[in-house]
C-alpha cells in the first residue's frame, strides 16, 4: 500500500512552509493542494477532495495547519484517513465575543477583507507579525517564503470568508481518526486554550505543547514537529501490524 501525506497549509501561506518537516519523510508521497487562485470559499475543500479521491485504498496521513487543520477535520469526518495532525488549529475560528482566547471576532476578518484590496502588503505584514513571537520575528525566513508564492487577493478574501463560515465542532464527537494536536504556547492566532479545547474534544487525541513558540512551529522548530509526527507514524504502523490478517 502506498503511503501518502497530504499537507494543508494555513491562510495565505506558501507551500514551501512545509519543506523542513516534509523532508523528514522521504518514503511518503507528498501532496499539497494549491489555493493561490481560489475565487470562492467553497473551493478550498473542493481542492482537497480532488486530491484524495484517488487515494481511498492507500494509507493517508493528513497534516493541517490553522485553516488547513479545519479542512483536515472536515476531510477526516468524510473520508478514510489513517492519521490526522492539527497544528495551530481550532474547530471554530470566529467568536462573537472580543476574546482572542476563544477566537477572532468576525469584525476583524471583515475589516481585513476590506483592507486587502487597498493595502494588501500591510495586511499580510500585520498578520505575520501577529503569528510570530518576538524571537521568531528576528528571523526573516517566513517573510522571504511569503514572497515566494503569493495567493491572489481574491483567494485571500475567499480564505477569510472560509474562516468566517466553517464550523467543524459538529464533527468532533464522532471523529475516530488517530489525531495529534500540536500547539505553540505563545500562539496569538489560535490560542493555547483553543488548542487544548480542540484536543479535549477529540477522543484519544495526543496533545503536544511547544514552549515559546508562535503560530508556525513547523517553520521554526521543524525537528520537534517532525519527531512528534514520526511517533504518530510509528504508532500507526504498530497498530496496523497487530490487526488480524
TrEMBL record:
**Cross-referenced InterPro entries:** AB_hydrolase_1, AB_hydrolase_fold, AB_hydrolase_sf
Q: Give the UniProt keywords, A-Z.
A: Hydrolase
Domain AB hydrolase-1, first and last residues per copy: 44-219
Top-rank taxon, per record: Bacteria
An annotated GO cellular component of this protein is:
membrane
List the GO molecular function terms.
hydrolase activity
Recorded hits in SUPFAM superfamilies, A to Z, give: alpha/beta-Hydrolases
> What name appears for this protein in its UniProt entry?
Pimeloyl-CoA synthesis protein
- The protein's organism comes out as Brevibacillus brevis (strain 47 / JCM 6285 / NBRC 100599)
Q: Gene name, please?
A: bioHII
Amino acid at each position: 500500500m502506498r503511503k501518502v501525506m497530504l499537507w494543508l497549509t494555513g491562510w495565505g501561506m506558501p507551500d514551501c512552509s512545509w519543506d523542513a518537516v516534509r523532508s523528514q519523510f522521504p518514503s511518503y508521497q507528498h501532496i499539497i493542494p494549491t489555493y493561490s487562485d481560489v475565487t470562492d470559499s467553497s473551493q478550498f475543500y473542493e481542492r482537497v477532495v480532488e486530491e484524495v479521491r484517488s487515494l481511498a485504498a492507500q494509507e493517508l496521513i493528513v497534516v493541517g495547519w490553522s485553516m488547513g487543520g479545519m479542512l483536515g477535520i472536515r476531510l477526516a469526518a468524510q473520508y478514510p484517513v489513517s492519521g490526522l495532525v492539527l497544528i495551530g488549529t481550532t474547530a471554530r475560528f470566529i467568536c462573537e465575543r472580543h476574546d482572542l482566547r476563544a477566537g477572532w471576532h468576525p469584525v476583524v476578518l471583515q475589516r481585513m477583507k476590506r483592507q486587502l484590496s487597498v493595502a494588501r502588503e500591510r495586511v499580510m505584514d500585520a498578520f505575520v507579525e501577529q503569528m510570530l513571537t518576538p524571537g521568531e520575528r528576528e528571523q526573516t525566513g517566513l517573510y522571504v517564503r511569503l514572497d515566494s508564492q503569493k495567493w491572489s487577493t481574491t483567494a485571500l478574501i475567499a480564505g477569510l470568508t472560509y474562516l468566517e463560515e466553517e464550523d467543524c465542532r459538529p464533527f468532533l464527537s464522532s471523529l475516530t481518526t488517530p489525531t495529534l494536536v500540536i500547539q505553540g504556547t505563545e500562539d496569538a492566532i489560535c490560542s493555547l486554550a483553543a488548542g487544548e479545547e480542540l484536543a479535549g474534544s477529540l477522543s484519544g487525541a495526543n496533545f503536544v505543547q511547544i514552549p515559546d513558540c508562535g503560530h508556525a512551529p513547523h517553520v521554526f522548530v521543524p525537528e520537534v514537529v517532525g519527531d512528534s509526527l514520526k511517533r504518530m507514524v510509528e504508532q500507526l504502523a504498530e497498530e496496523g501490524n497487530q490487526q488480524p490478517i
